[in-house]
Design goal:
Sulfotransferase family protein, glycoprotein, five-stranded parallel β-sheet, alpha/beta, 218 residues, Rossmann fold, signal-anchor
């Protein structure tokens, strides 16, 4: 990677990003962490990496050239992980409410409709999710879009593209005592798929893109 480029890690919640944070910390000595979308951009001008839970578009506010990375995850697994993470995290602002909900109540609660197609929304700068717009952003601005279910392979591509050294890791922030999607009733899976059709399509596109890029490395 061109050392003049600022690495921007767009951390989509519950996609394995906390683990990637530790790997990035081993690569760079000047990192800005923006966990609450505060856009602490004056420090980004001199940083090597900028990472946090923010939507695509940070580069519009930075004078230096930027390159993005992120991870995407199977939509059903991501929703399961998110639900159990909030239930297990006392300090999460939604813990008290969601702790009283079943998983089905959570995925059908109108209050949390914004979580549907959230991964696509991240690529669309927080605006109305649009599949073609998200694909275009991915292709023009992202050096690597990793796939959580192919974490090691994704990491190998990042190492190659970004000239990283030590990429050894331990999984962090993993929800405990949670089911997999194979444990869910068929109708629940159908509801998640219906609410996240754009994310499912974008995930498939990103996975095919990753596989093609890995094949090109061989």
């Amino acid at each position: 990677m061109n050392n003049e480029n600022l690495l921007v890690f767009m951390h989509i919640p519950k996609t394995g990003g906390t683990t990637l944070n530790t790997i990035i910390n081993n690569q760079y000595d000047n990192i800005v962490i923006d966990e609450h979308n505060t856009m602490n951009l004056k420090h980004a001008e001199k940083a090597n990496a900028y990472m946090g839970h923010f939507y695509f578009g940070i580069h519009d506010h930075i004078s230096r050239p930027c390159t993005y990375i992120t991870f995407m995850r199977d939509s059903i697994e991501r929703m399961i992980s998110l639900y159990y993470y909030i239930k297990e995290t006392d300090f999460h602002p939604n813990h008290a409410e969601i702790n009283t909900m079943s998983f089905n109540q959570f995925i059908n609660a109108e209050k949390y409709d914004f979580l549907s197609n959230l991964q696509t929304r991240y690529f669309c700068a927080g605006q109305t999710p649009n599949l073609e717009q998200a694909k275009d952003v991915m292709n023009k601005h992202f050096s690597v879009v990793g796939i959580t279910e192919m974490f090691d392979e994704s990491l190998a591509l990042m190492k190659h593209r970004l000239e990283w050294d030590n990429i050894h890791y331990q999984k962090l922030n993993v929800s405990q005592h949670r089911p997999s999607k194979n444990d869910l009733p068929t109708d629940t899976i159908s509801e998640i798929k219906q609410k996240n059709s754009l994310d499912i399509a974008l995930y498939k596109y990103a996975k095919e893109r990753l596989i093609n890029e890995l094949d090109a490395m061989k």
